Amino acid sequence: MAIDATSAVGTSKTSATAKKNDNSPEAIQERFMSLLVAQLKNQDPMAPMDNAQVTSQMAQLNTVTGINKLNDSMSAMVASFASNQTAQAVTMLGRAVLTEGNDIAMKDGVGTGSLEMKQSADSVQVNILDSNAKVIRTMDMGPQSKGIHQFDWDGKDANGNTVPSGNYKFEVQATAAGQKADVTTLSLAVVQGVRNAGSEGSKLLTNLGTELSFSDIKQIF
């Protein structure tokens, strides 16, 4: 007997769709009702199911279908959030951001860094470090108040020589009333790219060679 290819394909698609939707709320409800009807038909006439049992099973059905619908809603929300975050990340290209770190990029004789004072300090000094963590320049910022402060480095070492352009490190030493003051170093970076990190969301790639999440950013310029 000849088999109609179109009919076969249609049947295959229908079966695949049915299988795919086996865990949908509608499919679960249909299976539950079929089982409930079968249970009622075959119950012991001398010990019929009481209303409390039926109500309990209906409540369980509502819980299961409700969870499935909630999962579908959450999945849609996550997908929407990821899409919005990617779109937002693209708008960050070329923007300067401030984030925790001690990297400082020196280019064309100019380097900019920042620090966040958790308290006022009587004395604040910034040490510029080379790739070997050696101090090549110390800058005195004097007393500083609580908050975020920016400093500029002219790209010169302690002997007045201009160092090669590139990425350097810095450290901050601050004191208040003779005691070490609480300070956080901040890096000024430029967003140069965006990477999709899957479940971690979008990552911003910077000129310092670092990857940032939106939650890492303290300020945007």
TrEMBL record:
Keywords: Bacterial flagellum biogenesis, Cell projection, Cilium, Flagellum. Residues 1-25 are annotated as: Disordered. Residues 8-18 have a biased composition (Polar residues). Residues 84-218 form the FlgD Tudor-like domain. It comes from the Bacteria. The keyword Transport does not apply. Residues 101-177 form the FlgD/Vpr Ig-like domain. Belongs to the FlgD family. This is Basal-body rod modification protein FlgD. It comes from Limnobacter humi. The lineage of its organism: Bacteria, Pseudomonadati, Pseudomonadota, Betaproteobacteria, Burkholderiales.
